[in-house]
Amino acid sequence: MATYGGITFNGKSGEKYYFKAWPLQTRFNPLGAVYFVTKRVFSDKNYRRASHESIFIGQTPDLTAPLATPLQLACFEKQGANCICVFVDASEERRLAVAQDLLAAHSTTCNDTREHRTRAQAEAEF
Predict the structure, then answer these.
(1) CA 8 from chain center: how many Å?
(2) Number of domains in the chain
(3) How far apart are the first and last CA of the chain?
(4) The dihedral of CA 40, 7, 21, 55: what is its sign?
(5) For residue 29, is it left (φ>0), alpha (ψ between -120 and 50) or beta?
(6) Containing structural domain, residue 94
(7) Does pTM surpass 0.70?
(8) For residues 73 and 81, what is the distance between their CA atoms, to the nearest angstrom?
């Protein structure tokens, strides 16, 4: 599968991280990486520039392993996830730091399933 191109996400620290964006169904090589699951949409039809709605941020020592739990995968589907952005880094310490920096700066809908469930319950009661 072909890459969608690159995208830079800013962390809370101000550091910028360059990710390669891929279709969500992409099969990867066994690399360590931080990944950002998004809903890639085209809001500007004139310039064909994509924007990304933040769904999930994670890190893994192996991109070939399952990247989410069944509950998180169901959340991805519900949120319309169609893209995975990948920042390759072999260092687990660095991946954890990058993921935390990004999580502090981006509001995601599927990272904390307890929070997600509570919000959904509150909306159902409303």
Answers:
(1) 12
(2) 1
(3) 43
(4) negative
(5) beta
(6) 5-125
(7) yes
(8) 9
